[in-house]
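User:
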Amino acid sequence: GCGKAGNAVNFVMEHEHMGYVEALKYLGRKYGIEVQDKDETEEDARNRLKSESIMAVTQFASEFYQKSLWETDQGISIGLGYFKGRGFDNEIIKKFSLGWAPSGRDTLSNAALKAGYKKEYLVSSGLSVERDSGKDVADRFYERVMFPIHSISGRVIAFGGRTLRTDKAIAKYINSPETEIYIKSKSLYGIFQAKSSIAKLQKCYLVEGYTDVISFHKAGVENVVASSGTSLTTEQI
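Assistant: Predicted structure:
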């Protein structure tokens, strides 16, 4: 209608705000086409495979936390109760893939291991921590509402978990540690949900935390991101 022309790669580059190589890899993943870098060394390949494995684990965790929020008694009464109390409706909760980490120190870890995910990637992702001299793993997040952190292309790369307990000895927020796929100084919460609005309006608002971003979206202001309490960095800008 407007006379714009191009191919599938051009479309993804513009619509998803990606570079050429990133767009090719995005399309490859989407349609099961292997995209290889010709100059990739063995070490590069190992790192790439590790990063992809970690992302697979974080995606599993995100779906696990969402299911726990919507389908368990604890998730519905405590998790959904908290989000609804903040004024978040079902649509906005699903838009940001919000979830609930259930009680039990190894609920997620056991579910992931049973589903075939390797312990080393659970630990590398920061979702699990080793205990008993490495023989066993425990969940980093439990009894917390969960905020997945997405990359600009929409893949889950980390999490923030908020306790709803009033015990001051418990940290209010726990965040994923830095990993191969998550570097805090280079990440912005809400960038995936905000990128189209930012590109359209050529303006971006920076707020402090997760719920601030979500509240703005609920109010219809979508060009909003958060640096999650850290100092604003050059990479984030």
